[in-house]
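Lab meeting notes turned into a lecture example. A postdoc, R.K., suggested we walk through two folding results consecutively so the class can see how the record format repeats. The first protein's sequence and C-alpha cells come next.
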Amino acid sequence: RITSIMSSSDFNNLNQENNLYFSALNWDTQGVKIEGLNKSGDRLENFPINIQTEPGFERIMVLNGLAMLNKNGEPRIGIIIGQYNDTSSGRNLLLYLDIYSIDGNLIKRTNIFGDTSKGVLLQMSLMAVGDLNQDNNSEIVVSYGIIDYESFIEDRYNISSYNSFVKVIDSDGDIISSPISIQGYTPRHIALGDFGRGNLDIVATFSDTWPTTYDGQKVIGFDYLGNNLFDINLNDSNDLIQGLTIGDVDGDSESEIIINQRPRWWDGNPSGIMIYNHNGILENEIEIPTFGRADDLQSNYPLLVDLDNDGDLEIVQQATLISSGAS
C-alpha cells in the first residue's frame, strides 16, 4: 500500500528535479519504506530507505506524506510515523518525526508524542514546510491533536479531553518552538503565508468538539515563536471548515486567508468561501448555493489561478453535491 507521494519539485531545485519520492506501508508486515525513482521509473541509488521502527508496537501509521527539506543546500526527507497498540482504553501511541539524508542515513528521530502510559486517540497530524526564521533552511510545522480516551468516555463534554499542539522542528530534527496548544479543538489544516512581516507566518484551522460545538470552528494566525496575529471563531457554528489556502486574491499585493465551508447539518444551506486579511478580519464572503442538501468541499481546497491572464488570481472551487436523497 502506497501511503504518500511527493515529487522532487518540493526540493526547490536542489539538483533533485525529475525525481519522485514516496512512502509505502506494507500492511501485512507493518514495514515502511521511502522509495525514490527517476523520471524513467528506475530506482535511485541508496533507495529504498527501510525505516527501522520502534519495538513493542503491533501497528504503524504513516502520516502526512513526505516533507522535502533543505539544509544548507543539501536535500533531506522528513516523515512522520505513528506506532500503537490497541487497548480497551484507546491506543498507547508513539508519534515521531524521522529526517533522512538523500543517501538514506537517519539524521535524527524526534519524539513528537510519547506518553504511552494512557490510551489516546490521534486526531489528525499535519505538516507544512518553509523557511520560518530566515536562516535559508527548511523548518517543519507539525500540528496534531490528542484525545484522552478514558476522559472522553467518562465525559465527552470535558474540554480538557481534547488537546491540540503545534511544534516547529528544524531540518536537523531539533524542536525549536512549541508556539501554541489549545483545548477543546482538533487540527484541521495548516498553511504558511507571507503577510509582509519579514518571516513566513503560520495559519491553522481547528474543528470543534462536543464541548465547543456551538462556539464556531477556529482559525489562528501566529509566527513560529507563538506570537499571535489573530485568534477567531467562525460566526456561524453551522459552518464547517473544509479547506485553507493563502494568496493575494484582491490584487492589493498582500496575502489573504481563504477558507471554504459547508453546512454542518446538510440542511440545504449554502456552502461558501470566506476571505480574511492577515489580522483575521473578514473581508469578503462568497455563497455557493446548493441544488441538494449540501455541497461538500471536503479535501477540495480553494485553488488560486489566473484563468484569464489579467494578472489577478481567481478562486476555483470543486464541490461534491450531496443530493436531497442522500443520507
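The second example is placed directly after the first for contrast:
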Amino acid sequence: DDAREFFNVYLGIDPKLQIMADDNILKGLFPKEMNAIKDNNRDSKEKNSVPIPYKQLLFTTFILILRESFLLNDNAGLDYYLSSRVRHGTIKNQLRHHLQQEGLTTRKNAAGQYDMNIEWVEHRLGFEGEATTKALYSFLHFSQRVDEILQVLKDHKIQVKTESYNKDIDACFDLSLEHLQEGIYKLYLQDNKVFSTVVDDAFKLFWNRVEECFVDVKQSIKDTESLLCEELDKLYDEISELANGEMPTLSKFKDTITTCKTHLQQDCKVVSDWFQRSQISNKPFTMEELANASLRGINQYCNIKIQEQREINAPTLLAGRNIGHFYAMFHD
C-alpha cells in the first residue's frame, strides 16, 4: 500500500520540475554514459550540483522501496530465504557432515570448548606420550579452522547487501544501486507506466541481478572447498610428522582424508546446485512420496538412522504448487 501510494505521488509530479542534486544522488540516478550530459548541465555557480528531474528521483526511490521488500521482507524476502533455508545450519551441516561422520572434527561442549579427539588420536592412531598432546591439538586446530572457514561462507558470502545494508561485508548477493541503475533508468524512460507492470519489471530486474550473483556464490563455494581440502592436507602432514611416517595406522588415516576430500567435492557440488533459479513445478505428489523424501533427508544428516515401518493409504494427489508449504513444515 505504501509503495502504491508513493507511485501515485510520482505519477502526479510535473516532469518539467527539477531539483538541484549533488554527486552522491547522481551516482545512483544516472548510468555511467550519462556523465557527459550531467557535466554539460552543471551550473557553473554550483560546481557540486546539477539540475535533474524531480520525477526521476521519485521513480528511483520507488524502485528502491520495491528492492527493500524483495530483499528484506520478513516472510518472503531473499535474505529471509537465505537465512531459513541455507544459512541456518543447512549449509554448514552439508559441508561438515562427512568430516564429523569420519570423526575428524569435534563439536564444542557446554563450556564452549572443542572436545579433544581422543577417538582418533589414542584409539585409532595409537599415539602415546608427548606426541599424544601434540596430535590432540592438531585435531583441535583442524576443527576450529573448519568452523572458521564455514562461518565466513555463511556469515559473509551467503548474504545480501546494498549501499546501506551489510555494506561493509563481501556479500555475494550485491544488489547495490550501482548494479541496478542501468535497468532502473531504462524503466524510468518507459512511457505510460502502470503500477503492476512497473512492479513486475522491477522484480525481473532484481531476479536478473540475483542470477548474476550466482556466479560469485558458486566461486565462493569452490574457494571454500579448496580451503577445507588444504586444512585436510595440513592435518595429515602434521599427524604424519608426529608419527615419523612409521605408524601402521597412518595408511588408514590417509584413506580417511582422501575419502573426506572426495565427499567434500560432492557436497560442494550439491550446495552449488542450490543456487540456480528454478521454475515452479506443478507436478502432483502424494503424502507417501513426501514422507519418503523427508525421511531420506533426515537420515542423510543423522548418525542414528530412523528405521520404521509405515503404511500410508492416502492416494490423493496434492497440487504441486503446495509442495513449498509442506516442505517448510518438515524443514522447520
